[in-house]
Amino acid sequence: MMKLVRLCLGTLLVAMACGGASSVTTTTPSPTPSPTPPAASTSPLNLSLSGPGTAEVRTSKDQSVCSGSCTVQVENGATVLIVAHPQNGATFEGFAGDCSGIADCSLIVNSTINVTINFAPPPPPPPKQHVLSVTRTGNGTCTVKADAFGIDCGSDCQRDVDDGAEVVLAVEPDKDSAFTGWHGACDGKKDATCDFRVDKDLTVSARCMKIICSVDP
Q: CATH 2.60.40 in the chain, residues?
């Protein structure tokens, strides 16, 4: 009988050791995410360009180029440099608005910035020119002039004249000479003045002859 009691007690102890105790579940908490830093605040830089040219906008973080009017967002507190670049023979005339003068414009952005950049277009090309030559023929003496063009032939008988110019020549014979006619661009005209339009290199000749007086015996 004693033996049986011991056997049962041993069986009970083995059962408790193998499966009688309850299990415990441990839960690890999730890490708390770091807060997202707020986006940096910005202000608009408004550029208005007049004339043929571009504007370069530089910051420590970025660089952009505007042709025509544009808006660039710049972080508040940032220093911005604005550089004007004239194009196609234009001339930079200066800044207006929040910038002034003709030197590169540097400023700190903390609010809306408005800048105008003025470029002057290039001058028109010079007109095409032609050579106008004046000569005198005959045995007389005369002077051919075109005052508007500085021709005084005599001494100055050739000029570069703009294409399409209207020229008026006038001949002045000396007292002992007579004007007898034009040749070249004024060929066939008998008046002492001649007008014509210059559309190519031209030569005009005035003929003057001495006056010969005969005395009857």
A: 42-120, 129-210
